[in-house]
Amino acid sequence: MFTQNTMNTSNSNISATLALWYAQNKRDLPWRNINNPYLIWISEIILQQTRVNQGMNYYLRFIERFSTVSELAEADEDEVLKYWQGLGYYSRARNLHKAARMISTDFKGIFPDKHIDVLKLMGVGEYTAAAICSFAYNQPYAVVDGNVFRFLSRLFGIETAIDSSNGKKEFTTLAQKLLSKTNPGLHNQAIMEFGALQCVPISPNCDSCPLKSICKAFELNLVANLPIKTIKAKVTHRFFNYLFIEYQGYTYIQQRVSKDIWQNLYEFPLIESNRLLEIDELLEERDFKSLFEGIDRIEIIEKTNQKKHILSHRVIFSQFISIKISGKITELDKLIIIPIEEIDRYPVSRLMELYLEKLRLKN
Ligand code: SF4
């Protein structure tokens, strides 16, 4: 275990070592070497649950379309979600949009520069506020993301679980003590990059590490055991039977408005069940019958194979049933009727997008 004494004698050396390592090894990324808080904010939100490689194109497209806070604030939520399509965790996009509107109204369109105000923005927690304030304004707030947790846990041999409330406090205090007082922005960039590239989750190359002489995990052969996590996320299974309904070149979609996955995205009418349904079972479903009430002819064209779609805490088993009908659906409470070729205008989940891609290939 690390001791306070050990840390105090070496923390400025650690920071200097990280800065030197960073100068020699950092990746050239579009959100580096900028101090525009808006762009830093967008990049940090995208990178929260997305890998750098995947996030890069999204970031570039997003800031090209919404290059300022006011452009984002003035956009429709549907358009913002469309630019986010495929990235997952759509609450990030909804929160970005709400926060941009909040900046417009509460901060006169100017990105706040006080830590306490940045923390008020929707979707901005301690980590993101520290990143924005240190990268954009060089303010002394330590960032503690997954990479930093791992690195600190190993460097100081800390066995407190990183997902416990004690662990969060302990690592945040430690990161704050380690923070360079003269250049906190650079220090934060360096420690995150070090965790991302050098002190990687599996089999880090400790032999090439500039900190191996003081690394407790390396000394005690605990690298593979740290950091410690306790909580295993419970995974739930859901079963989605989607109905792609064709009527004279039109189809039907609905918006997912309830607080659930993919909130505010669009999708085909959905019958959720406790397992995927066979066609004869589907025809007997109450929701299916009420959807097509009064329609003379319902022709089942095709049922796709089951598809397993994995989200962070859920596995979605899905199938798409394509159906032709002889009359218009009259019960349009939640449904929107649109020309089939216009479906790409609407933001949809990756699962829907994959089906639409297949459909396009077939036609
Ligand atoms: S020696 Fe290994 S475990 Fe320790 S900080 Fe370096 S890369 Fe991480």
Written account of the structure:
This protein is of the alpha+beta class. The protein folds into two domains: 4-225, Hypothetical protein, domain 2 (Endonuclease III, domain 1, Orthogonal Bundle); 236-362, Nucleoside Triphosphate Pyrophosphohydrolase (Alpha-Beta Complex). Helix content is 45%, strand content 14%. The chain contains 15 helices and eight strands. It has helices at residues 4-25, 37-48, 52-65, 69-74, 77-84, 91-106, 115-118, 126-137, 146-155, 165-178, 184-198, 216-219, 279-284, 286-291, 350-362; strands at residues 236-246, 250-255, 266-267, 270-273, 298-303, 307-310, 314-325, 335-339. The strands form two sheets. Strands 1, 4, 5, 6 and 7 form a five-stranded mixed sheet that branches. α1 (4-25) crosses α11. The chain starts with a helix and ends with a helix. Residues 151, 154-155, 198-199, 204, 206, 209, 211-212, 215, 217-218, 223 line the site of iron/sulfur cluster.
Write out the CATH superfamily name of the largest domain: Hypothetical protein, domain 2
Q: What small molecules does this complex bind?
A: iron/sulfur cluster
CATH class of the largest domain: Mainly Alpha
Q: Work out the number of β strands.
A: 8
Low-pLDDT parts are 1-9
- Quaternary state of the chains: single chain
How many structural domains are formed by the residues? 2
How is the CATH topology of the largest domain named? Answer: Endonuclease III, domain 1
Tell me, what's the shape? elongated
Beta-strand percentage range: 5-15%
- The amount of helix comes to 40-55%
N-end to C-end Cα span: 63 Å
Instruction: Write down the overall mean pLDDT.
Output: 92
The CATH architecture designation of the largest domain is Orthogonal Bundle
- Report the order of strands and helices: HHHHHHHHHHHHEEEEHHEEEEH
What is the tally of helical segments?
A: 15
The structure class reads: alpha+beta
